[in-house]
Predict the structure of L,D-transpeptidase.
Amino acid sequence: MHRRQFLIGATALVAVTALAGCTTGGMSVFTAEYGSVKDAGYQLPQIPIAKVPRKYHRQIVKYDTAEKAGTIIVDTNEKFLYYVMPEGRAMRYGIGVGREGFEWSGTARIAMKREWPTWTPPAEMIRRQPELAKWRGGQPGGLQNPLGARALYLFNARGDTGYRLHGTPEWNSIGHAMSSGCIRLINQDIIDLYNRAENGAKVIVV
């Protein structure tokens, strides 16, 4: 399936109805949660979080939406991912999104969750960047793996969309449009989201 075909027909409906939410300033900001972390034998480095705009630090915000708790809503324009919580709140994370030509929107479900996942570049990416051919069979998980410490795999009725919510070693990409379409989070944030999100959870990307 071509990425640009991902629920194009549903995009307009999603844009109007799915992100019926608004947010206010952080109720709790987790700026202190970006220190070095030992995880599954890997030592994640400390993030120089002072260099990341405060609005992209993980925080609980007031968030009004008709979507039920456990839903994930991705606002690609504002570069925020919201994990909907009870009582009109959400955990908000700063994200990096697809660069020009790789934007997308639609709805999906989390079908799989993986720790320190293997990354396999798609054929079209290898054509654009032939140096990635060495990973045609998959790049093992690790500190330099583009998927980072965790990945949540997005599927729809047609199967694997090819998109992921995943970590990244490139913390300075948060707040920017730099990816090939996937939604990337700081590794410390994707670990937090991974622990909250359930298989089958609804994901809305606007």
About this structure: The longest strand covers residues 106-115. Residues 1-20 have pLDDT under 50 and may be disordered. The CA atoms of residues 20 and 41 lie 41 Å apart.
